[in-house]
């Protein structure tokens, strides 16, 4: 029986991957990574998975975990930017252990965005000679129910330095379904890269309009300059490293062409990924103002 090692198992992506793997069992054992005892206890409540200690900053834990699996689903924790320090050892250990395949959650455009960590990680994996599959998802809709939720609930606004840039979008449920499909049919996807989007290209102004219509209240979009954005987020006690990630994610697209959409998700899972309006309808209750 092949063993799938899922990093980030308690995060937004990892949880969904495990959920859809459990609904699509084909003779695989699921090893779910944890770093804290709290996460271990949480994973222990899920049937049919095996919690495995894995800490990106503890090489011994990485080696023990990789030696237990055949296929590694790899995510990059946002705070780990030193690719050589944290990811080169993973590829060395994977090669040494005879790992069958790495399925890496990258980002759309990573193949040409040489400055981002995902590009460097993809390059490391390719150079290692290990079989790979790269998943390059578009902008996560779930950012609206996590990172951007506070501004929407408390201020009825989206506050990002994104200007008029258009973004492609994807729902994490569709990412989870696609990833589970690939992991359970891994030999069909060896040395392939897939860009995962729905069929929309929207500005944040357009997304704010959809939010306004579906939530029944005006949601405005404000695009500050970088200094004002940085100052405001520091006032909100957002860590500097995370603010820089937000800037990279939302400001840099202003200077690039609009990313293309693909039909990859539909081809891989047999159903169309949801659009942004469908997402907002589904998540309506979590985005309702407390005063509503």
UniProtKB/TrEMBL annotation:
Entry superkingdom: Bacteria
Sequence intervals crossing the membrane: none
Record-linked InterPro entries: Ergot_Alk_Oxidoreductase (IPR051604), NAD(P)-bd_dom_sf (IPR036291), NmrA-like (IPR008030)
Residues in NmrA-like domain copies: 2-223
One Pfam family of this chain: NmrA
Name under which the protein is recorded: NmrA family transcriptional regulator
